[in-house]
Structures are given as C-alpha cells and as structure tokens.
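name: query_chain
kind: protein
chains: 1
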Amino acid sequence: MKTLTTAFVLATLATTPALAQAYVPNDRLTFTPTEGGVHISGSTGFGARGHWCAAADYALREMGAQDSQKLYVSEPRARGFGGDGGVTFTLDPAGLTPSPVVILGGSLTKAGSAMTISHGITLCGGLQSPGR
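structure:
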C-alpha cells in the first residue's frame, strides 16, 4: 500500500506543474520561425508576461530547447505606434549584451533582455486566452 501511495504522489507531482502552467494561445498571435529563434507578433492580452510565456513554450515544443537554456530578445518591440508589435526571441546571445529581466514591462523593448526558459514557463501559470 505504501508503494502504491508513493507512486501516486510522484505521478501527481510530475504531471501537475505541466498541466497548471500550460499556455493557452489565442488566435491573435503569429509565430514566425527565424534562424535560431522565433518572431512573435500580435497581442497575447497579457503584455510582456504573455510574450515571454509564449516564447518559452515555443522554444520547448518547437525548437527542442532545454528548460535551463536562456531566451534572449534579439529584435525588440518598437516603441510607440506602428509595426506589428512583434518581438523576436533567440537562444543565441551572439551580438547581444545579455541582461537579466528584472521588471517584465520594459523587457520586450530592449535587445539582450534574457531569462531562462523555465522562468518563462512559470509566467504561464494562470494565463488563459482573453474571453475564455
């Protein structure tokens, strides 16, 4: 009985975080693969938190990245009006001056903003598509 209980607890712990932190994308995002990364345009409805979450999820699922790897903003969002509001993320820091993200708000407007993929995934907790 003790072995069965232990197995159940371990199985529950192994699957619960993944389910709780799954990102539910909305149809307002466009993912365009780039060399070593992805350009995400559109609005998540959750600001920078939604973009980092989406980029981390994409890196894990589509790029085969490890959760310990870092994501970097390689082409920041343009300030002001115009453009597609997009941000390009990469796994390669070459040519960038990496700086850890401390405050999410302005992180998408600065090339080199960086966080681990696992941190980006933690930002997905509780996100739902707007209107759901």
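note: The beta strands are 29-34, 37-42, 70-75, 87-90, 99-100, 113-116.
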